[in-house]
Amino acid sequence: MSTTTTPLAPPKEPRDEGRMLGRLFGYIGGRGRRVKFWSAVGLRAISVVALTSVPAFTGAAVNAMRSGDSAALHTWVIGAIVAVGAYALFAGFAEFMMTRLATNATMNLQRDMFATMQRLSLNFFDRQPVGQLMSRVTNDTESVATFNENAVSQMMRGIFQVLLIVILMSVTNWRLTLAALSVVPVLLLVGAVVTRAAGPAYTRLQEQLGDLSGFQEETISGHRVLISTRRQDWAVHQHDLQAGEVFTTASKATFTGLLQFPATMAMTTIQMVVVLVVGGLLAAKGEADVGGVIAFVGLAGLLASPLSDLSNLATTTLSAIAAGRRVFEIVDDRPTVVDDPAAQPLTFTGGKVEFRDVDFSYVPGRQILRKNTFTALPGQKIGICGPTGAGKSTIINILTRYYDVDAGEVLVDDQPLTAVTIGSLRANVGMVLQEAFLFSDTIMNNLRYAREGATESDCIAAAKEANAHEFIEALPDGYDTMLVERGANLSQGQRQMLTIARAMVARPRILILDEATSNVDTRTEKLIQEGLRRLMTGTTSFVIAHRLSTISDADSILVVDQGTIVQQGTHDDLLTQDGLYRNLWFSQFKGKA
Ligand SMILES: Nc1ncnc2c1ncn2[C@@H]1O[C@H](COP(=O)(O)OP(=O)(O)OP(=O)(O)O)[C@@H](O)[C@H]1O
Ligand SMILES: [Mg+2]
Question: Are residues 297 and 363 part of one domain?
C-alpha cells in the first residue's frame, strides 16, 4: 500500500458558498429543467397569494359583522374558504413537482459523481482510501439530498410568503408594519451568528464523517487481520474515538443551529404582542378599524412559520454546502491519462510491444522505472521476474496505460501508446492480475463480464481450458453459484483459475499474467499452463512469475531489479551468465540440487 497518501485536494478556503449554492440549484432548476422548476415556483407563488389573502377576508368579515351586513359577511366567509382550498390545491401540486425535481437532482448528482469516478485515472484512487470515497458517495450526497428535498421548497415558500406579507402589511398600515418588523433585525443577527459559528463546523463534520467511514471500511475488509492480531478491542476503541469526534462536531454544528428555532419563536411571539398593543392603541384612537387590525394580526401570524423555516434552512444549507464542496471535488476531477485529440484506434498487426528508455514514477520525486528498454515480437512469450517491489507490475501498468510515462516511449505495433485511443488499446489487452478480483455475482456472470456477447458455451469452454470447470461443476449451484463478498467463498487458487478463465473468455491479442498461477499447486499450474499455451499461440504474452519454472520456456525473460531491467534473454542464456537470474534460479532449487 502506498504510504504517501495525500488528501484529494488542498483544503479550500470556504468562501465559495454562493457558487456552491448556485451549482446545487443548477441540479434542481438548471438547463433542461427550467420549465418544470419555474412552473413549480409559479404554483407555489399562487398558493402563497391564496394563503395570504385569508387574513384580508377574515378582517373584512369582522368589519361586515360589526356593521351587521350579513350578505357581505357571507361573501367574505365563502371567500376565505375558497382561498384556503386554493392554497391547499396549489401548494400540493407545487410540493409534488418540487419533490420530483429534488429526487432527480440527487440522482443526477450521484450519477455525475459515479461517472467521473469511472473515468478517472488510477492515480486518483492511489490518493485516497476507498472508505473516504464511499463517504463522499453516501454521506455527502445524503446531505445534499436533504437540502434538495426540503430546503429549496421551504426557501421558495418562505421568501414568497415573507415578501408578500410585508408588502400587504405596509399597504394596510405602515405604522403597524414598522412595529411588526421591529424584531427582524434581531432575527437576522441570530442568523448571522449561527451561520458564522456553524458553517465551519459543518465542513469539519463532513470531513470527519469521511474519516470515520474510511476507518469502518478498512476494519471491515480487514477483519481477518484484526481477528488474528487480536486487535478488535483496539478497533472498537479507535472507532469510539473517531465517532466521539464526529459527535462533538455534530453537536456544535447542530447546537448553534438549534439556537435559531427558540430565537425565532420568541421573536415572533414578541412581534405578535407588539402588533396587538400598537394595533389596540391605534384602534382606540380611531386611527385603525378593528377588522383591519385583526387582518394585520393574521398576516403577522403567517410570518412566524416562514421565518422559522428560513432560519432553520441555514442548518440544512450549510451542511449541503460543505457536502457539495466535497462532491464537486470529485465531479470536477479530470483524468490525467486521456486520449490525445488526434488519437486513432490501435491498428493491430500482430502484437509487437516496445519499451524505449521508459522512466516512470507514481509519485513525483520517487522514480520507480529507469530507462526500461525491451521489445516483444508478435506471438512471443515474455517472462518477467525479479525481487518483490522491483517494478514488474509497474511495467504492466505502463503497458496498459493505467499511468503515463515520465520519459521515453511505449509502442504497440509501432504505434506510440499516446497516439492510440485508450479504449482500443485495452480492448486488445487481457490481464490476469496479482489480486484476483471477482464481482459479487454468479460465476457465469463473472465470466461473461469479460467480453460483450460472450455466450454461456464460450464461458464453459474457457473454464475447461483454465482447468476450472471441474471445481465449478462440483459446487452446489455450478455456474450459477453466487460469489459472496467478491469470491470469499472460493479458495485463492479457485479465484485465480476463474480470473484466468475470464481472461480466456476475453480472447485478448496481448495477454498479461501477473503472478496468475502463484496460488495454485504445481500440478494444477501444469494443467492451466496447457490451457494458457493454447490461448497464447499467436498471442503476445507477458508472464510475471516468482516461480521461475513458470517462465523458463519464455522466448525472452526480463530480469528487473530496482526498476531497471538488469538482464534479458532466454532461460538458457541467462543461466550461463553470472547474474541475478542465475542467483534466483539456484536459490529456488537449492533444496533439490
Ligand atoms: N500506486 C502506487 N503508488 C505509489 N507507489 C507505488 C504504487 N504501486 C507500486 N508502487 C511502488 O512501486 C514499486 C514497484 O512496485 P511493483 O508493484 O511494480 O513491484 P513488483 O515488482 O510487481 O513487486 P511484487 O513482486 O511484490 O508484485 C514499489 O516500490 C512500490 O512501493
Ligand atoms: Mg507485482
Answer: no
This prediction's pTM: 0.72
Ligand 1 contact, 389 CB (< 6 A)? yes
CATH value at residue 250: 1.20.1560.10
The pLDDT of residue 302: 82
**Residues 358 and 326 reside in one and the same domain:** no
Q: Indicate whether 252 and 363 sit together in one domain.
A: no
Q: What is the pLDDT of residue 515?
A: 85
Instruction: Say yes or no: CB of residue 562 within 6 Å of ligand 1.
Output: no
Closest residue CA from atom 29 of ligand 1: 389
269 CA from centroid of ligand 2 (Å) = 70
Atom 14 in ligand 1: residue holding the nearest Cα:
391
- Kindly give the parts of the chain with pLDDT less than 70: 1-14, 257, 590-593
Secondary structure class of 339 (helix, strand, coil): coil
Find the helix or strand (DSSP H, E) in which 26 lies: helix 17-29
Please check whether residues 265 and 387 belong to one and the same domain.
no
pLDDT the model gives residue 591? 54
- At position 570, the amino acid (one-letter code) is T
- Provide the pLDDT for residue 590: 64
Angle at 231 between CA 230 and CA 236, to 5 degrees: 130
Characterize the bridge pairing of strands 540-544 and 415-416.
unpaired
* Domain identity same for 305 and 435: no
Residue 116 lies in a domain: yes
Distance CA 148, CA 155 (A): 11
Residue to mutate, 359, 362, 542, ligand 1, most ligand atoms under 8 Å from C-beta: 362
What does the alpha-carbon distance between residue 469 and residue 492 come to, in Å, rounded to a whole number? Answer: 16
- Mutate-to-test residue for ligand 1 from 388, 393, 518, 551, highest number of ligand atoms within 8 A of CB: 393
Q: Report the SS3 class of residue 498.
A: helix
As a whole number of angstroms, the distance between CA 395 and CA 397 comes to 5
SS (H, E, C) 162-228: HHHHHHHHHHHCHHHHHHHHCCHHHHHHHHHHHHHHHHHHHHHHHHHHHHHHHHHHHHHHCHHHHHH
- The label of the residue with cell 399597504 reads 171
Where a domain ends, among 277, 300, 332?
A: 332
384 close to 395: Cβ distance less than 8 angstroms: yes
Residue 29 is part of which domain span? 17-332
Name the phi and psi angles at 366, rounded to 5.
Answer: -125, 90
Q: Are residues 289 and 358 in the same domain?
A: no
Q: Which residues of 163-185 are buried (b: 16+ CB within 10 A; e: fewer)?
A: ebbbebbeebbeebbebbbebee
User: β-strand 540-544 against 381-385: which pairing, if any?
Assistant: parallel
Residue with grid cell 377576508, as numbered in its chain: 57
Last residue of a domain, one of 332, 364, 380: 332
Pairing relation of β-strands 556-561 and 564-569? antiparallel
Would 368 be classed as within a structural domain?
yes
